[in-house]
Amino acid sequence: MGEVRIAAVAAHFGRDLEFDLHRIATLIDHARQAGAALLVLPDAALGGYLADLRHPDPDALPPALEPDAPELKTIASLAAEMTVCVGYCESEGTRRYNAAVCVTGDGVLGRHRKVHQPPGESVAYQAGEEFAAFDTPVGRMGMLIDYDKTFPESARSLAVDGAEILACLSAWPTSITNRAPRMAQDRQSRLFDLYDQARAAENQVVLVSSNQTGAMGGMRFLGQAKVVGPGGEVLARTWSKAGIAVAELDPAQEIAHARRVLNHLGERKPAVYRKG
């Protein structure tokens, strides 16, 4: 593939799907002008996230979209030659999932349903059941949503499946139980960055982390979108403000360099790891 520009978004999205689509179109246009081949939008970029994580209101949930909804087809059309990942609420009969899809103008490349759920989210969403990598024009990828990246096994499963790039789509808020006076001092702000860098470094992959900004109900989102190299180094970031973090790199070359002496995946010893 060679060198590509990879972009991660920090932006606010709410319940108004028309507004969200307009913002997504603008972000895709800005990323294209920056030369990005991959753009990762936040979790719940279509319809917004929950307004209350501990006690979600069943009557005020994000709009649920079918896997082949026209809004997703519109994003694929807007993506054209770019690879774009976007989060939304997916419906399957009476079930809802916190989901993500990766598309180009040619259609769907990969899908993911959030597996790990913080307390309260199970009121609004069913849990996904797998992690699977998929091939894209920018390399083999995998997707994680929000809390998924807290668990090392999530990213490791995708890396073992050959993923070179991990797209982590989030609607990650500040601490709900112990909010700090300044966002930079918030416990969740620290953990969000820690997980991004650790998941990249321990698997020696490129990690692209998007997140929502602003507020919805009692939730205040962190932003902090970033691109992280396979050594855990932050290559580009937005901090807490809305924007697009863009980094240019050759993922395959950077990964090969990171694994040249110490190859974490190749040096695992699964036979001695405790199951379950």
Automatic annotation (TrEMBL):
PROSITE patterns per the UniProt record, alphabetical:
CN_HYDROLASE
Top-rank lineage group of the source organism: Bacteria
Record bears the keyword Mitochondrion: no
Annotated ranges, domain CN hydrolase: 4-251
The terms under GO molecular function for this entry are: hydrolase activity
User: Does the record carry Cell membrane as a key word?
Assistant: no
Q: Which UniProt keywords apply?
A: Hydrolase
One Pfam family cited in the UniProt record for this chain: CN_hydrolase
Fetch the PANTHER family from UniProt.
CARBON-NITROGEN FAMILY, PUTATIVE (AFU_ORTHOLOGUE AFUA_5G02350)-RELATED (PTHR43674:SF16), NITRILASE C965.09-RELATED (PTHR43674)
Indicate what this protein is called per its UniProt record: Carbon-nitrogen hydrolase family protein
Q: Tell me which species this is from.
A: Amycolatopsis ultiminotia
